Amino acid sequence: MISLKIISMLEFMNKKVSIIDYGLCNLYNVVAAFESMGASVELVESKKKISEAEYLVLPGVGAFKDGMSLLNKKNLTSEIINHIQSNKPFLGICLGMQMMFDKSFEFGEHNGLGVINGDVIKIPSIGSNMIKHKIPHIGWNNLVLNENISNNFANLASNNDSMYFVHSFMANKINNDNILAHVDYNGIKIPSIITIKKSIGCQFHPEKSGKHGLSLLHNFLDL
Question: Distances in Å between the alpha carbon of 99 and those of 112, 115, 202?
Fold first, then answer.
């Protein structure tokens, strides 16, 4: 009898995932997560490779300014934007999600990729109950799906899926149609999954989020 794991690996054995290696992320867990599903994974750092990508992933940890600076230095931004606007599957993880917006106010004001209207601000240090909480937001939190979402990503994740977060800044001033899910952090609604065309941004780390994170990556490869 063939196991479900083998069936899953066979399902994605012809899927090619290109992960952008621009010098600001430990890529091991992201690569391992996709390879565990049978996908072929390649680390890319050139315009040509990005232009050839089927499924493109932009991970990232650290400061917005540094991330955009490295992408610009490698002359990758225009090709990433072209991939997204061409309606090809794209996944931005943590900082990779934040760089999808117009700009960030982390350590100054810095322009992003601008594929989704909105900006990135520091998470308020006081919640709706007027009690201070820890910044950064670290640990597990449950997704709350946008009940009015009607796009192709409606089945990407489920209500109350628990995901792992590590971040001090959050997306802000976003059109509600682009928000698939948020989490509640002491009364503050933090956009956690954003979508446009066939592109997804996750504020959390799906590659570190156990079965729910792997389920999301599985559904991404199903696009």
Answer: 5, 9, 11
